[in-house]
Design goal:
- The chain has two helices and seven strands.
- It has 91 residues and is α+β, with helices and mostly antiparallel strands.
- The protein has one domain: Monooxygenase component MmoB/DmpM (Phenol Hydroxylase P2 Protein), CATH 3.90.56.10.
- The chain has a four-stranded antiparallel beta sheet with strand order 2-3-1-5, with helices on one face.
- The N and C termini lie close together (10 Å).
Length: 91
């Protein structure tokens, strides 16, 4: 049985595009689709956004709660702490 697709949609801002590229680093096999005003990110099972990787990409400290500023929608359950933001399906 295949896993469900975790989904994350963020605003297509300069910061959103940089965060999407950072997400690609930590999530092998991820699909990123650029749409006119948003970036759609999909991966089977889970999407992990690591604070360290995003901080390196942005060139400044970044905390996972900042994702809420550009977040449009998610598909899946969310687990968040100081180190990472995870969208996943528990099935």
């Amino acid at each position: 049985m295949s896993k469900s697709i975790a989904l994350l949609c963020i605003q297509a801002t300069d910061e959103g595009r940089t965060i999407a590229e950072a997400i690609k680093v930590d999530n092998e096999g991820i699909q990123i689709t650029n749409k006119p005003a948003m970036i759609q990110i999909e991966r089977e099972g889970e999407i992990v956004i690591k604070a360290d990787t995003v901080s390196d990409a942005l060139g400044r400290d970044w905390e996972p709660e900042e994702l809420q500023l550009i977040l449009i929608s998610t598909g899946g359950q969310i687990d968040e702490d100081d180190e990472q933001f995870v969208v996943y399906w528990n099935n």
